[in-house]
Amino acid sequence: MTAGGRPPPRGTEFALPARAESVARARRLVRGLPAGWGADEETRDTAALVVSELFTNAVVHTGSGSVVCELRQERGAAAGMGAPLRLEVRGRRPGPPAGSAPRARPPGEEHGRGLMLVEAVSDAWGIREVHGCGWSVWARLPASAARR
Question: pTM higher than 0.85 for the full model?
Answer without folding.
Answer: no
